[in-house]
């Protein structure tokens, strides 16, 4: 796999309803189409109620690996929700882990009812930057709205991962996978959202800069 890890350990995390399981499926199918072996493991909280949902994707050149990533061994974490990203990082990140994170929170019921308080965005970002090697925060939900639906934020995140330079195969495999999995206007929506994520991360190469203003403005 050249300069890439063997296996490459990717975690896609968020809460139920954000489409991160579908995103992990797209990543996995694209990797298989590119000629790699893939193992996938998933863990669920009370996903139908906005509970934690985490997918492990392990991409290998030619060896079989177990589906679950060992603790502290994630190379990439794609976080669809800020607090869930931190939660997963506590168990799976290390100083070399790369984080790609959506800046839009999914507030738990307790926060919506005023019983709990969602952490301040600056504290979340500080925690993420302290634990990770590189961090990219993007407005995936806003980009998805521009593409046509906030529900397409999962494809924005997938596009960001595809354009990050962290994978051993090209974006064309993602495009073909999306075309094969979806039809008609859903296909076009997902392709557009994927492209928005791809272009956004490509235009923001200074990953270690502070995203406080952009981050706080969407929380």
Characterize the structure shown:
- This protein is 42% helix and 18% strand.
- It is built from 9 helices and 6 strands.
- It has helices spanning 20-33, 82-92, 109-112, 121-131, 140-147, 153-162, 171-181, 184-202, 212-216; strands at residues 8-15, 37-44, 52-60, 76-79, 98-102, 134-138.
- Helix 1 runs parallel beside helix 6, helix 5 (140-147) packs across helix 6 and helix 5 (140-147) packs across helix 8.
- Residues 206-219 have low confidence and may be disordered.
What would the keywords be for this entry?
219 residues; alpha/beta; six-stranded mixed β-sheet; 42% helix
Question: What's this entry about, in short?
Answer:
By secondary structure, the chain is an alpha/beta fold. The chain has 9 helices and 6 strands.
Name of the CATH architecture of the domain at 8-141 and 162-169: 3-Layer(aba) Sandwich
Average pLDDT number: 86
Strand count: 6
- How much of the sequence lies in strands comes to 15-25%
What's the SSE blueprint?
Layout: E1 8-15, H1 20-33, E2 37-44, E3 52-60, E4 76-79, H2 82-92, E5 98-102, H3 109-112, H4 121-131, E6 134-138, H5 140-147, H6 153-162, H7 171-181, H8 184-202, H9 212-216
Parallel strand pairs: 1-4, 4-5, 5-6
Antiparallel strand pairs: 1-3, 2-3
Helix pairs in contact: 1-6, 1-7, 2-4, 5-6, 5-8, 6-8, 7-8
């Amino acid at each position: 796999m050249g300069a890439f890890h063997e296996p490459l350990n990717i975690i896609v995390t968020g809460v139920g309803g954000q489409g991160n399981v579908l995103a992990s499926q797209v990543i996995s199918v694209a990797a298989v189409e590119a000629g790699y072996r893939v193992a996938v493991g998933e863990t669920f909280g009370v996903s139908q109620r906005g509970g934690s949902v985490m997918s492990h994707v392990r991409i290998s050149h030619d060896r079989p690996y177990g589906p679950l990533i060992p603790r502290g061994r994630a190379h990439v974490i794609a976080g669809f929700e800020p607090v869930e990203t931190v939660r997963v990082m506590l168990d799976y990140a290390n100083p070399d882990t790369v984080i790609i994170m959506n800046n839009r929170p999914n507030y738990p019921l307790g926060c919506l009812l005023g019983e709990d308080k969602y952490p301040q965005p600056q504290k979340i970002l500080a925690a993420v930057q302290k634990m990770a090697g590189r961090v990219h925060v993007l407005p995936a939900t806003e980009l998805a709205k521009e593409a046509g639906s906030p529900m397409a934020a999962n494809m924005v995140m997938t596009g960001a991962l595809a354009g990050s330079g962290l994978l051993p195969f090209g974006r064309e495999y993602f495009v073909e996978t999306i075309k094969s999995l979806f039809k008609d206007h859903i296909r076009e929506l997902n392709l557009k959202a994927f492209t928005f994520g791809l272009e956004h991360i490509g235009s923001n190469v200074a990953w270690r800069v502070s995203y406080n203003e952009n981050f706080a403005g969407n929380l």
